[in-house]
Write a structure and sequence with these properties.
Blueprint (H helix, E strand, L loop, with lengths): L2 E3 L1 H4 L6 E3 L5 E4 L3 E3 L4 H12 L7 H9 L5 H6 L5
Antiparallel strand pairs: 1-2, 2-3, 3-4
């Protein structure tokens, strides 16, 4: 799965186009490109797109993005927002 257009596109509503294999690219409706300078932001977006049909635990994301850092500990301790 190298590029994704959400189900909204097939239903005729506006959605973003995202390519995350090869060169990373996000294009919003109207051919408006979006730049993500952070490798963590790109990784997070790609992971969430790949797992879009299921809930993703905050602890899993924190470990994935900050596995070599103490930064993951405060993220996993935050109360869930609803």
């Amino acid at each position: 799965m190298g590029s994704v257009q959400s189900d909204d596109v097939r239903q005729g509503t506006a959605a973003a186009f995202v390519r995350f294999l090869g060169s990373f690219e996000i294009v919003l409706p109207g051919d408006n490109p979006v730049e993500l300078d952070s490798a963590r932001a790109r990784s997070l977006l790609a992971y969430l797109i790949q797992h879009r049909s299921a809930a993703v635990e905050r602890q899993r994301l924190a470990f994935m993005l900050w596995q070599d850092s103490q930064e993951a500990q405060p993220l996993t301790a935050q109360p869930e927002r609803r």
